[in-house]
Amino acid sequence: MENKRVVSGINPSGSSLHIGNYFGAIKHQIGLQEKMETYYFVADLHALTTVKDKETLQENIKNVVLDYLALGLNPDRCVFFRQSDVPQHSQMAVVLGNYVTYSHMKRMHAFKDKLQKGENEESINMGLFNYPILMAADILLYKPDGVPVGEDQRQHVEIARDIADSFNKAYKKEVLVLPEPMISTETGKIIGTDGTRKMSKSLGNVIEIFADEEIIKKQIMGCFTDPNRLKATDPGTVEGNPVFVFHDLFNEDKAEVEDLKNRYREGRVGDVEVKEKLFAAHQRYFEAAKKKREELTRNPELVQKILRDGANKAIKLASATINEVYETVGIVN
Ligand code: TYM
């Protein structure tokens, strides 16, 4: 095992995970468990920026915990916990806010995107504006070498580095570690079913992983394909076509994928067949994870125990860092 550490999280702002989460980040995170010290968590405090209903939030957290575990987290190898179970995240965020400027924060995507989507400053809550500071706290508490995430989180990892750097410079001491973003060039940005934008729950262009079959089927059958191909007998384009992007991601029957691509290029296959095969591939690919999820659902005590053990381990490291940070700034009782 390399002597390296990584940390990453998922925001339970939605009720379940999608294939963008999986191929963009989770699959990579799972692979790292065998090689490095891994800290993964459900960023429940982050979800407050958008979820303002108690039952919905509790349901989302429960689902995302189950999804994440079922997809292959191994609690014997990784430290898995809920952000809110480790109070040092909130403590660290209060400190770190002092090492980043308002103008830098105003340049952050999540905030700017909201403004572009027509929201005005009056409707943007401070939790959303401060999101990158809490995220920097999530990361820097564990002094990780890297942060495995999708491309959309690059800017957040970069600001965490900037904050760590300005903290260290202020005290002329290498207290915080500047971590590297670990983003896959091939799968760092998974396209949505609309074929244009990044797959994202809030854009409604997702293919979920554990939703009911009927929902997943609908998501797949509604997927955009080659907009220039009007009939099944027209030759079509495979490159960049979302249905084929998805086939390449999770249809492990490569001969079938090649056959479909060839026939598509030659105008010898209809969209419906391509999508039905994609749906079947989805069912096969996630079958084991679905079974695992059902087992975990039947065993809530085990899930509670995993989270408790994870939080205890995370607190050890997080409290050592916060003590060092308090000591550095002069907050010593
Ligand atoms: P979140 O919950 O939106 O997404 C979880 C992970 O999935 C990745 N992802 C994608 N990757 C490729 N293509 C896509 N279409 C796609 N959609 C989502 C995200 O990049 C992410 O890696 N702010 C974070 C959660 C967080 C965090 C942290 C992450 C909170 N604290 C500390 C790392 C470290 C978020 O909202 O991710």
UniProtKB/TrEMBL annotation:
Cellular location(s): Cytoplasm
Enzyme nomenclature, EC number: 6.1.1.2
Catalytic reactions of this protein: tRNA(Trp) + L-tryptophan + ATP = L-tryptophyl-tRNA(Trp) + AMP + diphosphate + H(+)
CC terms in the record's Gene Ontology section: cytosol
Any GO BP: tryptophanyl-tRNA aminoacylation
UniProt binding sites for L-tryptophan: 138
Description of how the protein assembles with itself and partners: Homodimer.
Protein known as: Tryptophan--tRNA ligase
Originating species: Candidatus Collierbacteria bacterium GW2011_GWA2_42_17
Gene label: trpS
